[in-house]
Amino acid sequence: MLEITNTVLMLASLSAMMTHGFKSSKQDFTFGPWKVTAAKTHIMKSKDIERLAEEMHMPSLPEMLFGDNVLRIQHTEGYGIEFNAVDALKRVNNMQDSVKVACAQEWQESRADSEHSKEVVKRYDWTFTTDYRGTLLGDDLRLRATETSERIDMEKLKAREQIMFFDDVLLFEDELHDHGVSMISVKIRVMPTSFFLLLRFFLRVDGVLIRINDTRLYHEARKNYMIREFSTRESSISELKNVPPALYTDPNEIAQHLTLKLTECEKLELPEAGPKPGDTEAPQCEQQKQLKMSRNGRRAAARDEEMPPKQRKKDSSGVPSRLCFDTPDTVFHSLISPMGQEEFFADYWEKKPLHLQRSDPVLASYYQSLFQLSDLKGLCSKGLRYARDLNVCRCVHGNKSVMNREGRVNYSQLRKDFDQKKATIQFHQPQRFKDELWQIQEKLECFFGALVGSNVYITPQESQGLPPHYDDVEVFILQLEGEKHWRLYSPTVPLAREYCVEPEERIGSPTHDIILKAGDLLYFPRGTIHQADTPVGVAHSTHLTLSTYQNMSWGDYLANVFPNFLYDSLKTSDITRRRGMPQRILMEPNTAPETNSQLASLLRSVADQIDRGEHELRAADMKRDFALNRLPPYTPEKLDVSAPAERMPGLEDTVCLRFKDHILVSLETCQNPADGSVSLVVNVMHSLKNNREKHMMGQSDEDDSDDEEDGEEDDPSESPGMIFNIEALPAIRQLQAGQPIPVAQLKRPSSNEKVQMALAFWSEGLLELLSTILCEGN
Fold first, then answer.
1. Which of 298, 344, 541, 686 could make an S-S bridge to 484, C-beta 3.0–4.6 Å?
2. Sheet harboring 135-137: ordered strands across?
3. Where in this chain does the record put each JmjC domain (predicted)?
4. What pLDDT shows up at residue 636?
5. Do residues 251 and 239 touch, judged by C-beta distance below 8 A?
6. How far apart are CA 680 and CA 667, in angstroms?
């Protein structure tokens, strides 16, 4: 059994808490009509700081001043708000009237014997205390600030929405000549329906006082305003005598012990020329609300053409996305739009084909951006190999002729086979290279709870790549470029479990004869016989096949669950199934009627037990296969999602599970190597560390040889997750619920075991600390 030891967890925490220095970076993120920019660079040079101090008529500036750091939220119309160090310093000294304790004076008195004491006799706040709340942007159009009684709904922020973007920007920091610290930083997180920002000025003067000025900014999609809250909290050190001094250095911890001195709340109203309440829809879903379709599947007139393209979410190619990525459910809903999910699964899923004819140029443009013929040149430079990455084939006299060459793919030769030999190019698993397909398929795997593979087929004019055949997967065809002529036939093997080529004379007349055009979608169940060709007059056709539900039948589930169920039931007090079989049953040529009757009775009792829920149904092998082979979570910046948070969780923290849809919990048997005893354990598996580049690729001979050279050998029995004793299951179920929960409330017998469980999930990157996420200090 795998034990989560303190040593392992400590190594993980040290790795997670390693500082990265002041590395320059710039990140942009689009949220509907808003662009969020977070720029971070090096500390200003001394000569630049001196020049700036002179320009600002300030005797000195903070030791660590990041003058070029900025966090900006700007609308496509030009207005917005940004946070930078220079403007923050311009507000120094503005609080001496509103805060009774003059910090600079107390500091001066506390350090009268300092070598720098003569420098602080001027009327100037050397603590750099600032009431800065951001800088409004725009010339003709600006956000308009008005007082309001409306407050930020912090409970709504605790709803576990996906965090699509997060950054933390330090503006300045000064150690007050080793007498404390003065610093200001700004954090932002963007969710599918809102963004939340915290600007925090933190001041600690050793032996004197602690002060926190917080500015919180919140904007909800579909609302034409932001809420900005400003608060000041402050207490003298003497007032904090009952607070452990160790908390003085942590703004999040000490904030709740400080006295609230001031609270102000403003509504930042968007200019009338800016977006209307309906225009700041959740960034990926606006276009879905515009897809008004008629009952026959053709797109009716909609407002989407009137919406400026820059207000829509765009993929890496710059083309507006037409899918809603908020949740797995919304991705599938937008994929089959205008068809509703209820109608689709009731009338079409596993029953009959569906053709959605859209005639939508914007959708066609988006589909083309997913993959096109012109992409092949760049992809060939990545070391593609025949068979592994693509096949070159053509249907000749009802048979598939494979025209692959040896080794790496040469683009010039590939185009020659395509242009001159009319060969179809079948590109395997393009989600390995295309981020938008990664995002689509990752969400669809969460939706179906099954692997989702893909292939791109590029076929020249008057050519056909494959003979009539059927597959063992549910198929969704997205027409990306050109047109494709499809003929579908009634299954000879409904809901087939294997791929098979069918001769023309066996398949009869087509049930569907369809021309797919760019932007159209075609679905058909496994077992549906099909063939497709590129019509005359069409330069070429490119389509994407999304396939799923391979080996996901009730029969597959029973084959996996039944042995485990019988094993568990044999250990109960009921001895019925432990009784011996009739003598010579294995020697009989045929099973006797009495034996069949007994077996039927036993199976009925098994069915009754399942119906009563007396034993956990353990599909361990299917779960392990899914967890090991599915895509990792999609991350726009290709971040390491498995890296734990910077701070380890403690008993006092509230935590929540990350990537809930990527976690599978399985009950499995485990044998103790010491005494051979078998016990039931909990295996928590996840896909955060899965390799996107190997998704649905299997293991080729070439990969095997590469692993041997690297000295790597996969152990098929090795668990892809964490193993816990069965007693830990209730606490794991608490975390699986996906709601914030205090570590102290986990159902474990001791405080140490509660913390150890939280640390185990944290070290795998599966746990978020609520205080870190919400950036709260009160």
1. 541
2. 25-31, 34-40, 70-75, 80-84, 135-137
3. 429-561
4. 75
5. no
6. 7
Residue ranges of the chain assigned to CATH 3.90.930.40: 620-774
Where along the chain do the CATH 2.60.120.650 domains lie?
A: 291-300+311-548
**Block residue for tokens 């077992």:** 527
Whether the predicted model's global pTM rises above the 0.70 cut:
no
For 404-422, the pLDDT digits (tens) are 999 999 999 999 999 999 9
What would the CATH number be for the domain defined by 291-300+311-548?
2.60.120.650
For the chain, the maximum distance between any two Cα atoms, rounded to a whole number of angstroms, is 108
Here the tokens at position 520 are 């159209």
DSSP 594-608: HHHHHHHHHHHHHHH
CB 302 within 8 A of CB 322: no
- In terms of DSSP H, where are the helices of 550-662? 554-569, 593-612, 620-629
| DSSP code string of 504-544 | HHHH-S-SEEEEEETT-EEEE-TT-EEEEEPPTT-SEEEEE
Q: Which CATH number fits domain 620-774: 3.90.930.40, 1.10.443.10, 3.40.50.300, 3.30.565.10?
A: 3.90.930.40
pLDDT for the residue numbered 122: 40
Beta bridge mates, 527: none
Q: What pLDDT, in 10s, does the model give residues 331-356? A: 999 999 999 999 999 999 999 999 99
Q: Pinpoint the alpha helices (H) of 277-420.
A: 286-290, 328-335, 341-347, 361-370, 375-380, 411-420
Please classify residue 469 by burial: count the beta carbons closer than 10 Å to its beta carbon, then call 0-12 exposed, 13-18 middle and 19+ buried: middle
Highest-pLDDT range among 46-60, 147-161, 629-643: 46-60
Q: Which single residue is written with the structure tokens 């056909």?
A: 464
Under DSSP, the state recorded for 22 is: S
712: phi then psi, degrees, rounded to nearest 5:
-100, 145
Give me the count of residues in the chain.
778
Q: What share of the chain is helix, strand, coil (3-state, %, to 5)?
A: 30, 30, 45
Q: Which residues contact 135 (CB under 8 A, 6 or more apart)?
A: 81, 82, 83, 84, 87
Of the candidates 386, 373, 377, 457, the residue with the CA atom closest to the CA atom of residue 411: 377
Residue 197 CA to residue 168 CA, distance in Å, equals 10
Report the DSSP pairing between strands 180-190 and 194-205. Answer: antiparallel
Residue 729 phi, psi (nearest 5): -55, -45
Rounded-to-integer distance, Cα 339 and Cα 354, Å: 10
Rg for the chain, CA atoms, rounded? 32
Would you call 747 exposed, middle or buried from its count of C-beta atoms within 10 A (0-12, 13-18, 19+)? middle
- Amino acid at residue number 440: I
Contact 31, 76 (CB under 8 A): no
- In angstroms, the Cα distances linking 566 to 265, 449, 519, 615, 645 are 63, 25, 50, 10, 42
Cα separations in angstroms, 659 against 162, 440, 664, 745: 8, 16, 11, 21
Whether residue 61 contacts residue 89, with contact meaning beta carbons closer than 8 Å, is answered with yes
Place of tokens 């149904």: 617
